Amino acid sequence: MSRSLENDRLIRALRRQPVDRTPVWVMRQAGRYLPEYRAVRAQAGDFLTLCKSPEMATEVTLQPLRRYPQLDAAIVFSDILTIPDAMGRGLYFAEGEGPKFRNPVRSRHDIREIRVPDPQRDLGYVLDAVAGVREKLGNTMPLLGFAGSPWTVATYMVEGGSSKTFSEIRGLLYREPQVLHELLELLTQATCLYLAAQAEAGADALMVFDTWGGTLTPAAYREFSLQYMQMIVTSLRAQTDKPVVLFTKGGGAWLEAMAATGATALGLDWTTDLSDARQRVGDRVALQGNLDPCVLYSTPKQIRAAVQQTLQSFGHGNGHVFNLGHGIHPGVDPANMKALLEAVHELSPAFHD
Q: Per the structure, how many domains does the chain have?
């Protein structure tokens, strides 16, 4: 069951209930743009060590909340590739190149080597971080847990890392679709268990990041991405009443289908107009987003104007969580993040009764 929170704006907004102002948090709000994060990252020595230290992960999760009291939520510091790492695929992070796998998945034989991780045993460090942040926060504000979508996680597993063309996984999709489905089914099972465990450990809402769903054709998106997110939503709905947010980067064409999954809210990137999205989904889901992250490279005056435009795009009423359309970039001036948050606080009450 959901806990009683001193600041429950985010949870109320996700449920399309009245709030006094639009709640705000930012994807990657704990990250490289903050000097205090960079100090802990240097202490850890590498990114994966930081993720796997519950104490350090707890610390960096809390850093933006100390710097920015305007934030309405924490999101646990982790990575979307924790599940394939627990599956033994040899995750590592190459400096300047991002994530890589020593053991990419390219065949049915590779898939049959994979077992579904036990969250407590194999991903306990994430659950310990969730519990640690929950303890530090008390009941002051909500904590978000998250996972990558099965399709997005599979792209890294099959490609062996990041990709611009996704030629390996898209080739597999067309050449041997059933093999890819076998991988996606395993990842879906793992993700359902993982997110339910995060909810049990203290997360108040859960988010699924489908970063690469927008690379698919409409038919392939429904078959290889949305179908599996639907399974996750259905599974979580049967276990918890906590809100579930789906975010597909580049997914603006499929909002109606995403809303039909039973998710509580949809995240939007900056390529979709909020007013159009609201008209299309009606009162089925709340909406989260969707300021272009690059606005934060401008000036406080321009940031304020962009915040006003985003709020006006959604319009008056309930069901909006202010966020960027994707994660905050490493080179952003922390003062500009403050300008964003202050603008949301000052301007958003006019859009609520």
A: 1
